[in-house]
Amino acid sequence: MTENTAPVDIDVPDEEEFETVGDCHRMAAYHFHAAAKHHEAAAAADDEGHDEAVARHAHMAYRHQLNGVQYAEIATMESESLDDEFDVPVHIEAE
Questions:
Q1: What is the pLDDT of residues 22-80, one digit of tens each?
Q2: Per the CB 3.0–4.6 Å rule, which of 3, 28, 29, 60 could disulfide with 41?
Q3: DSSP for 12-48?
């Protein structure tokens, strides 16, 4: 089988070091990159008819994608740049 199982080469912070929005972006990048590698491995396994490997890599790709989206959302929500002049205050009027 020709699947690529090399580790993803991105500097991932330890949980104790996980403090900044940049760390969230790094974690998102790590998970999206890992998802892409698993999709490539799933495609190669499919080309070779290895159904079990296809399912395993597809599942891992999906898990990494979900984690990547979660970290990207955290980075977006924690970003200070969201607090800008385009924010519209919400006024709730009592009825």
A1: 999 999 999 999 999 999 999 999 999 999 999 999 999 999 999 999 999 999 988 87
A2: 3
A3: PPPGGG--SHHHHHHHHHHHHHHHHHHHHHHHHHHHT
Give the tokens for residue 15. 């949980």
Coil, helix or strand at residue 4: coil
The domain locations on the chain are: 18-78
DSSP 40-70: HHHHHHHHTT-HHHHHHHHHHHHHHHHHHHH
Q: pTM for this structure?
A: 0.70
- Whose tokens are 């519209």? That residue is 88
d(CA 31, CA 25): 10
